[in-house]
Structure formats: structure tokens, C-alpha cells
Design brief:
The structure is a single chain. This protein folds into 2 domains: about 120 residues, 3-Layer(aba) Sandwich (Rossmann fold), CATH 3.40.50; about 180 residues, NAD(P)-binding Rossmann-like Domain (Rossmann fold, 3-Layer(aba) Sandwich). Helices cover about 30% and strands about 20% of the residues. It contains 10 helices and 12 strands. Strands 8-7-6-9-10-11-12 form a 7-stranded parallel beta sheet. The chain has a 5-stranded mixed beta sheet with strand order 2-1-3-4-5. Strand 9, helix 8 and strand 10 form a beta-alpha-beta unit. The longest helix has 18 residues. The protein starts with a strand and ends in an 11-residue tail after the last helix. InterPro entries: D-isomer_DH_NAD-bd, NAD(P)-bd_dom_sf. Keywords: NAD, Oxidoreductase. It holds the Pfam family 2-Hacid_dh_C.
Amino acid sequence: MLKIVGATGKKLRILEMSKVSIDRTDLTDVTCAWYSRDIFAGGTPSRDSAATQLFFSLVNESPRLQWLHVISAAVDVLHYQPSRARGVRLSTSSGIAALPIAQCVVGAVLAQSRGFGGWFASQQRREWAPILSADAPRDLAGQHAVIVGLGPIGQEIARLLSAVGLRTTGVRKRAVPCSVVDSTLTFDEIDAALADCDWLILCCPLTLQTRGLINRERIDRLPHGARIANVGRGALLDEVALIAALETGRLAGAYLDVFEQEPLPAESPLWSAPGAWLSPHNSALSSGNGQRDAELFLSNLRCYMLRTPLRNEADSE
């Protein structure tokens, strides 16, 4: 079912519209709408479900819409822009999937750092091939993770990595101290942290400032054997430069959940790049997300009706 919520003053009316029969005269009453997970279901971040297409066509036809709540953490989704352009308030579900995304990143850090890639490969060959002492992995304790973006995802990554002994540097718009990292830098200061970075982790939004942030020059600043993880947006990272660094062995590995083009084309060299682990923009998946999203929306609905600040409102800072 497609759910659009209309509220006038303190009176609430919920419009549940089937995909087949929709009375568009009701849209004149709609002042707020919730892009919920059941509408997204059946789609992907790069391919809309039929319900998503229908939902946003109705949203764009609702002349009195004041507020739109969406399931994503990002605000750069094309579907949201018509509403934002006409002054509709937008709130996101930032933080809802922070823990599962962070667990995927930390899982990759632990597994790649401990040698699971080699063990998986020898298992496929049915070969008993212990790692020799000369090639023993470094202790995780004391390694340095540079976490670009200190929103809910970045902070959760930092918390988990600190628990296993990594030193953490957070990169954000302003170098305001953050309790879950050892130090903070601005985006303009990121170069200072790359020379001794073991894991460069990208989890920031895509903006004019962050597009192409990790280019060939910055990849070259990383020490030999460093690794990169990207769960932010594909356009944060120069994929051509990343592939070259993986193929030459300059970088030891990468974990990527987002890509410049999605779905990732079958001919992309990333599929077979040495040390690259890929997930199809799927790291946020978790059975508890729907409940957390519903709770956030209902909390924000109360705030909306009481005219108090919304949580996660875009451009609210």
C-alpha cells in the first residue's frame, strides 16, 4: 500500500492509496508524506520499485505538501529534489542503519587485516595453505583508521574500531572534537592524516566539497599496503585510480558498497581487482531497520503536529 499522511492542525487523516485506484482529489489535503520501506521494497538504490515511482508522482502533485520524511540518510536522491525545490521540509532516516553499515565495514577491516582473503582463496582450491610466519598480519592494535564523515555511521565505525585497538582520526566539515575518535580534521586537512593511514574509510555525504575527494594524488599519499572502504557514495572515490593501486599491489585491499555507476557493470575491472571485496549497495540491510524507521517517523510526526523541531531535518544546521 502507498501511504501518504495528511494533517491539518491537530487533526490527522491517513490516506492509504492502492496502486490501482487513486482519488487524486484527496491530494489537496496532504501536508506531509512518508516514504516508507514497504514502498521502497522491490527496488534498489539504483532501480525504483513501481510503488516508489507512484509515490513520488503523487507527492509532486500534492499542492499543500509541507513535509516529506524519507527512508534514506542521504538528501541527494533525485526523487527528493522537486519537493526541496518548492520549499518542502525534508527529514531523513539518518542513523537508522548506522549499526549494520558499521558492522559491515568493521567486519571487512577485521577479515582483511587478519588474512581471511587468503584463507578463502585456498579453501576454494581445496589447499591446506597456512600463512607463514614471515607473512604474518600486523597486530590490529595501534593501526590507524581515517574515517571521513562523522555522522551516525562514522561514529559507530569509530566506536567499534576503537574497541579492537585501532587509533582513529575523524574528518568532517569542522574540526570539532568528537568523543569517539582520537582526533579530528577538516576535509581540507585530510592530507595530513594519509601518510600513516592503514584504513581510509569513506562514509560522508556526497557534496560539492566531497565529490572526487579521494583522487589519484590522495591514494598515492597512502602508505604501501593500506586499504580503503567506501560506504558513502561512489563518486567520493576515483575508481580508476583505486583499481590501478590494487592491481599494482600498492594497496592491499578495499571494501566497496557504493560505486560510480550502479548496478556495477559486468565489465568493470573492480569485480576481479586483487583484494577488492564488493557488496551491491546492500550494507544497510537489517531486519530491524523498518521498526526503527517507523519509530523515527512517528516521533517526527508528533514534532510536526506540535510545531517543534524535526529530527534529521535537511539543511537544519
